[in-house]
Amino acid sequence: MPTFHVINDEKNNNLNHQRFISQIKSTISYISWQDATFTEEAIYLAKKIAKKLPDLSSNNVVLVIGDDTVLNETLNGLLAVKRKYELPIAYIPINADTNFSNKLNIKTTQSALHHLQYITHPTFLAISKITGDIPKRQTKYFVNSLGIGFDVALTTHQNNKIIHQKKSVFHSIKNYFAIATAFCNQKKFPVTVNFCSEYRHFPDSFLLTLTNKFNLDDISSSNNLIEKATLEMIVVRKISIVEFFINMLFKHNNPKSNIVHRVPLSKGDTIHVHDIQPGHLDGTDLGNGSFSFSVRQQSYPFWV
C-alpha cells in the first residue's frame, strides 16, 4: 500500500472543495497533509518532503490535490532535490477539465479518487525540461505546456472558464472581453529555433507554445515511453482577430498554412524569443522577459 504525503491547494477553497477534501480524508490513508495557501508554496512543501524522506526504495507517494499549476509546482519542487529514488506523484484534480486530467482520461474528480485506490505501482510518464533564460537563468520542468506571448492570455482565459463555469453570464462576457483586449494589445515578436541541425526564424510571431505529448496506451517502460513521447513547438504569426478565429477553426492542422507553424523538437534544440514577452509553465506565471533556452524530455514516475 502507498504511503501518501498530501499537498492540497487551498487557494481557491469553497464549500464544494471542503466537502470533497473531507471525503478524501475519510477514503485514503496519509502520513502528512499540508495545505498550499499562496502561489509557489507547493514548491517549498515538495522540497521539504523530498529532503525529509529517506532516499531509499519505498512506498512513499506525493499526492497533489489541485490544478495543473500546483502539480507543476510540486514536480519542480521534488526535482529541485537530488535523489536517487524519485518520489512518485499522484493527482486528484479539483476540476476534471484540466490539461493533465484530459491526458489521463480523468472524467470527474470522483473517478480520480476511486481510481487512486486501485493503483499498485507507478507509471513513468514523459515530462519536458527547459534550461536557460526563462526569463531568468534557471531549469524548469513541465508536464503539459510552456507558452509565450498571447498563449498566456489563452491559458488565463481557459482557467477562468473552469473557475467560473457555473457562474453568471457576466463572468463569461468579462472573460471573452479580456481575451479580446489581450489579443489587440499583443505585439508581434521574433522567434528563432535551432532544431535537428536546421535554423528557422519567425519574425512576426504573436503566440508560441511547447506541448509535451505522450499516449498512455504506449507506455510499457520508461525507455519505451521516451522513444514514443514527443515535444512540439507551435508558432502562430500575427494576424487580425477575424483571421485568428477562422484559422483556428479551419487551418490549424493544415501543414501548408503560413499562419500556424509546427516544429517537432528533440534533445538539445534551442529556442530564442528576442523580445520582452509574458510566459507561463503549465499555467504558472514565469513573468515578463526575453527567452533563450534548450529543451529535452525525460521520464518521471506518476501514481496514475
From TrEMBL:
Family annotation (Gene3D superfamilies): 2.60.200.40, Probable inorganic polyphosphate/atp-NAD kinase, domain 1 (3.40.50.10330)
Record bears the keyword NAD? no
InterPro entries of this UniProt entry? Answer: ATP-NAD_kinase_N, NAD/diacylglycerol_kinase_sf
Q: Which GO molecular-function terms appear in the entry?
A: ATP binding; kinase activity
Top-rank taxon of the source lineage equals: Bacteria
Q: SUPFAM superfamilies from the xrefs?
A: NAD kinase/diacylglycerol kinase-like
Keywords, ordered alphabetically: ATP-binding, Kinase, Nucleotide-binding, Transferase
Q: Indicate the transmembrane segments per the record.
A: none
Q: What is this protein called?
A: Diacylglycerol kinase
Organism source for this protein? Leuconostoc litchii
Q: Lineage in the entry?
A: Bacteria, Bacillati, Bacillota, Bacilli, Lactobacillales
